[in-house]
Structure of Methionine aminopeptidase:
Amino acid sequence: MRELINKDECWCGSGKKYKECHFTIDEKLSKMEGEGLIAPPREIIKTSEQIEGIRKSSQVTKKVLDMVAERIRAGITTDEINTLVHEYTLELGGIPATLNYRGYPKSVCVSINEVVCHGIPDERVLKEGDIVNVDVTTIYKGYYGDSSRMFIIGKASEKAIRLVETAKECLYAGINVVKPFATFGDIGHAIQTHAEEKGYSVVREYGGHGIGIQFHEEPFVDHCAEPHTGMIMIPGMTFTIEPMINEGTYRCKVLRDGWTAVTADGKLTAQWEHTVLVTEEGVEILTA
Ligand code: MF3
Ligand code: CO
Ligand code: CO
């Protein structure tokens, strides 16, 4: 029976024989499932054609953020950032993914100071000392790319700068553990360890996510977790890592607009995000 199965085409869409493709990976996954870990569902493993599409989309996202980096300054409104992102995305042949996503009304999220995520652009003016997250998600030829960066407006306080830098280190601490047969728990553990070492807390209510064919796919990527737990990584998985790091409590609340998440204590928060791909060698940062 096994022989028959092994002559079949692999389930992954490579066109190769199963035995010469995912057979060894599946065997290792079964063994790890025996240790209580979770094998990734086959639907979220991307084909090389899909990966190329997600890579291109992620590069559009990167270009849009590069443009924002050049234009953001004290005196600009968040609505003006929204217009810049909207128009440049269209110019590059993409569609802003957040616009009308589950009723979200704008083409970008702009989250200032105590805003954890999903800040809605409006007539608010950025001022010297603000720390601002700009989160861009693009649909390009049907594929999704998602990334966010922090921007420091003019001269900010030492503690704000330190928070922004630590949040970036947390993102890379997470990215650095990505490789075949590592677990999503390893990502959360690396991030949490680094954040707590520096005296910060990690938001739990929001996390990273599978991405590519849809905006939010499986799995939920916890930024707070135990090592060697949860879902197992294998090549062809695409997901975001996007830790939100807080000065005070990790707790958040959502404003009456139904979107804007703020820290429960009003203290500062910072976030950086990349879309990544698990490769045979380790990781490729698609939005870099
Ligand atoms: N870009 C955000 C993320 O990283 C999601 C924004 S959804 C929106 O997952 F509707 F708020 F725009
Ligand atoms: Co995002
Ligand atoms: Co995301």
User: Anything to note?
Assistant: The chain has two domains: 1-36, 43-285. The chain has a mean pLDDT of 97. Residues 98, 101-102, 104, 109, 118, 135, 137, 146, 209, 240, 242, 259, 273 surround MF3 (ligand 1) (CB under 6 Å). The two ends are 45 Å apart (CA to CA).
